Amino acid sequence: MERLQKVIASSGYCSRRKAEELILAGKVSVNGKMVNTLGNKVSYSDTIIINGVTLKLEPKEYVLLYKPRGVVSSAQDDKGRKTVVDIVESKNRLYPVGRLDYDTSGAIILTNDGELTNLLIHPSYEVEKVYLVKIDDIVNPSLVKSLSNGVMIDGKKTGRAKVKIKKIDKKKKSSLIELTIYEGRNHQVKKMFEAIGYKVSKLKREKFAGLTLDGLKSGEYRHLTVKEVKRLYAFK
Ligand code: URA
Fold this sequence. Notes:
Layout: E1 2-3, H1 4-10, H2 16-24, E2 28-30, E3 33-34, E4 41-42, E5 48-50, E6 53-54, E7 62-67, H3 84-87, E8 95-96, E9 104-111, H4 114-121, E10 129-135, H5 141-145, E11 152-153, E12 156-157, E13 161-169, E14 174-181, H6 188-195, E15 200-208, E16 211-212, E17 221-223, H7 226-233
Parallel strand pairs: 9-15
Antiparallel strand pairs: 1-4, 2-3, 2-5, 5-6, 7-9, 7-17, 8-9, 10-14, 10-15, 11-12, 13-14, 15-16
Helix pairs in contact: 1-2
Uracil binds near residues 100, 101, 190 and 203.
């Protein structure tokens, strides 16, 4: 049993606060009875109707996937390409939290918890993302380090970032850089490197919100523990 406003929010219908407003305004019914006070508990088998809309309630599921390259990170693809949702077997309708490019690999969460999704993708929570970036070139270390001061992409300066040069291979003419960012703008890492004159040749997200790929191979996934889910909620 969970509080009514929490169950409404986790269905993705609206935020917890908005759910409280709707309850108090008398817009919510549980199993045919109007509920207009806070503090009621419900289960996922109850029928909750808001403004005539029946909520689709499913037990919450949280998966960490090591996304392979060559897979789309949306629930559906209009070009018929394989998606992250195709990889994860589930009875529930899971969807990815944020996006990784088709040619990017790495850590991505799939869930049917709309509330947690909204929290993790909201810019104000500044969720940490750690990327490993390969450049087919010998990079200039001080230029790359300057990424931590922010660069202009799409007319707006990027926020705080941490940069670690992991390897510069002079023979193979390639470099590996670890970049940590706290935003999730479209193609952000590729654009940040583009802004300093380098093309990213390979990109992998090694860590998302503290979750690493430890124990997973490309294409594998695991369910998050209760403790991990609680920790993700603690971003609030
Ligand atoms: N930044 C990118 O450029 N691509 C990704 O997939 C993720 C971050």
